[in-house]
Design goal:
Strand content of chain A: under 5%
Oligomer: heterodimer
Helix content of chain A: over 70%
Largest sheet of chain A: none
CATH architecture of chain A: Up-down Bundle
Strand content of chain B: under 5%
Shape of chain B: elongated
C-alpha cells in the first residue's frame, strides 16, 4: 500500500486516482474530527468538502518533506476555526440586535448545537481541538504542533489545560 | 514522584487510552502512587469517568454522498490547477476590450484635467494647478495600470472558478 506521502506526490502531479485514494483513506476520520470540533454534522459535511478542495488546490505547493496527516488535519482545523469565528461574529451581532429576529434564532440554535455532549462542548475551541486530535484521532504532540502551527510546549499545556477544565466541570456536577 | 508528576503521567495514559496499570515503568509507578494517595486517586477516577464518557459519545458515520461530492469537488479543483487551454485566447479578448476602452478613459482624464485647469484658472496660482494636474494624472495612471495589470489574474481566476463549479 502506498504511503500518504507517495499518494500526495502523485496528487501534486495531477493524479486523480491518488487523490481518490487519499479521500477514501481520510474522509471518515477528517469528518469525525470536524463533527467533534464543530458539533454539527451538516457543518462537518461542508467543511469536509472544503478541506479536500483545499488539498487539491494546495497539492502542487505541498512540501514533500512534510507529513500528510498533520497537514490534512491542519487544513480541517483551520476551516473549523474560521467557521467558529463566523459563528461568534454572528452571535455577537445577534446579541447586539443587529440581526433580524428569525436569523438570530438560527444563529443561537446552531451555537446551541456546538454543545458536544456536555462538558467537551463547553471547552474553549483551542482546548477542544487538541483534545479531539489527541484522544480521538491519535495524533502525537509533534503532529498536533505541525497541524495547528503551534509549538509542542503549547500543545502539551493545552492538553493539560483541557483536562484541568474538564475536571473542574466534572467536580462541579 | 510528586502528585503533579503522577497526575501528568496519568493524563498521558488517559490520552493514549491506556488507563490500566500495565504500561511502562513510569505509568506503573503512577498507578501505584494513585492507589495510596487520595488526591491522585480522585484524579484517576476523573480520568476513568472521562474516558468512559468520551467513548460513549455517539458519532454518526460520514454519509457516502458527502464523500462522493467531496471527491468530485476535489477532482474538479485538481483539474482546474492544470495549465488551462485557451487561456491566451481569453486573455487576448479581455485585453482587446480593455485596449478599445483606453482612448475613452484617456479622453475622460484629459477632460477632467482641462476642466479643472479652466475652473481654477482665475484664483489658483499656476504652479499649484500644474502640481494638482500632475498629481491627478499620476494617480490616474497608477489606477489604470493596476486595473490593466489585474486582467490576467481576473481571467485566470474566472477560468478556475468556472472549471471548479462546472
Amino acid at each position: 500500500m502506498e504511503s500518504d506521502e507517495e499518494l500526495m506526490r502523485a496528487v501534486a502531479h495531477g493524479d486523480e486516482r491518488a487523490l481518490a485514494s487519499l479521500v477514501e483513506r481520510y474522509a471518515a476520520r477528517i469528518h469525525a474530527f470536524l463533527t467533534r470540533v464543530t458539533g454539527d454534522r451538516d457543518d462537518a459535511d461542508d467543511l469536509l468538502q472544503d478541506t479536500w478542495v483545499r488539498v487539491a488546490r494546495g497539492a502542487r505547493g505541498f512540501d514533500a518533506a512534510r507529513r500528510v496527516r498533520p497537514w490534512l488535519y491542519g487544513i480541517a482545523a483551520n476551516l473549523a476555526r474560521d467557521l467558529h469565528r463566523r459563528r461568534a461574529v454572528r452571535l455577537r451581532a445577534a446579541r447586539e440586535g443587529n440581526v433580524a429576529a428569525n436569523e438570530s434564532g438560527v444563529t443561537f440554535r446552531s451555537v446551541e448545537r456546538i454543545d458536544m455532549r456536555e462538558r467537551l462542548a463547553r471547552l474553549p475551541e483551542r482546548l477542544r481541538e487538541v483534545l479531539v486530535l489527541r484522544y480521538f484521532d491519535g495524533l502525537d504532540e509533534a503532529e498536533m504542533a505541525e497541524a495547528l502551527g503551534i509549538p509542542r510546549g503549547t500543545v502539551k499545556s493545552r492538553l493539560h489545560g483541557a483536562l484541568r477544565e474538564l475536571r473542574q466541570k466534572w467536580e462541579a456536577t | 514522584m510528586s502528585c503533579d508528576a503522577v497526575q501528568q503521567q496519568l493524563d498521558a495514559c488517559a490520552l493514549e487510552h491506556a488507563l490500566a496499570p500495565d504500561g511502562d515503568a513510569a505509568a506503573v509507578e503512577s498507578f501505584a502512587h494513585a492507589a495510596s494517595c487520595e488526591a491522585c486517586a480522585a484524579h484517576l477516577a476523573f480520568l476513568r469517568a472521562l474516558d468512559a464518557e468520551l467513548a460513549a459519545i455517539p458519532l454518526a458515520a460520514v454519509r457516502a454522498p458527502v464523500v462522493a461530492t467531496a471527491q468530485q469537488r476535489a477532482t474538479r479543483a485538481l483539474r482546474a490547477r492544470e495549465r488551462p487551454r485557451g487561456f491566451g485566447r481569453e486573455l487576448a479578448a479581455a485585453l482587446a476590450v480593455a485596449v478599445l476602452a483606453l482612448p475613452l478613459v484617456v479622453a475622460q482624464a484629459f477632460v477632467v484635467v482641462e476642466s479643472g485647469a479652466w475652473l481654477l484658472a482665475g484664483w489658483v496660482p499656476e504652479a499649484i494647478r500644474v502640481w494638482l494636474g500632475f498629481g491627478y494624472l499620476a494617480s490616474f495612471a497608477l489606477g489604470v495600470g493596476a486595473l490593466y495589470g489585474s486582467i490576467p489574474l481576473v481571467v485566470a481566476w474566472r477560468r478556475r472558478a468556472l472549471r471548479e463549479w462546472a
